[in-house]
Amino acid sequence: MNQSEESRSTLIWIAAEPWDTTNFARPQQIPRLLARRGWSVDYAVPQPSLLRRIRRKGREDWRDPCHELEPGIRVHYLSAPFPGGHRSPLARRLNSMTARRGMARLLSPPSTPLPLIVVNSPALLEFWPPEAPVIYDCHDAITTFDWATEAYSAIEQRLFREARATVFSAQPLMDRYGALCRRPVLIRNGCHPEDFSIENRNAELPEDLARIPEPRVGFYGLLGPWLDYELIRTVAARLPTVQWVMIGRAEVPPEVLPQATNIHYLGRKPYARLVDYLRGFRVSILPFLNNRLTEAVNPVKVYEYLAAGCPVVSTQMPELEELGRTGLIEVRGNSESFAGAVDTIIRSTPEPAAASRRIAFAREQSWSRRADQYDVLIREVLGGE
Predict the structure, then answer these.
(1) pTM, to two decimals
(2) CB 167 within 8 A of CB 138
(3) Domain count of the fold of the chain
(4) Fewer C-beta neighbours within 10 Å, C or N terminus of the chain?
């Protein structure tokens, strides 16, 4: 249900990620779609430290502190100039002081009632007024990251207790923390299926991918410490004629990344180009470690891979067990069986019916459907005041 421009209700979406991130995912997709459903969305993000802003010169961070992206959605920067706020109590206090002033400007002139605020990181709790209604969007087991301190965990515990609703992106997350919350709700991740349709794409592959011979097996995403690099090294050695393509920014030391003549690192690519790379993959992979962080993940990539009709081989993750049981993807528990699943797919003839089934499933997991769920929840939370 759309609202008229005159009657738009305001949401403040406080995010940890800048709007122009190449990983354009849940924190950007849902507020954009809510804006298209008639909500007036103020997307507020802590401004990076001065050093990071210099490195990002020419990108969005150097624009005005507030600007409109498209009808119904504006970006606001809450100044947080001191790096290391999640580790340093002093930096956190200083950032909080400057960001609160930005929040006060965002809420000026004061409205009655205060707009609903969606927070997607515990570290941002200090930026919202305590009397405002809040929804916490919990899409990661954040306190399992190396940098998460006890103080950070305590902030999240408070957010669980005080938020009008807590939205979890994965069932294991809700199982772990739901009992602490006033109202736990499950809204999984999704995709824009039309962005990953390969039916009408340019026949030419990206130049850097075209130089790599077939068959190609690919992954895209942040190359972080949650990936199983030993598995990648082992399966690449087991299948030396298969080319393993890794796309994304590396956030681990160079020596952690496995090196071989059939492993190729192509760096970070824009969201809009990912489908062009997917089209050149015979198999897409999700080579995650099995730990406290990954067991609570609902990976966006699986929906995007399936939307392209691409076969998927994954390591074991609770959120993917059902997809494995139904045959939509292949789930394997060790490097030998993982390599075997990849090899079987490569040696088989592509099945159009199987690809159509994957695409049909992905269409049911759209960000648009997730935004519909969010829209209903927000109305219920505001209606219950």
Answers:
(1) 0.87
(2) yes
(3) 2
(4) N
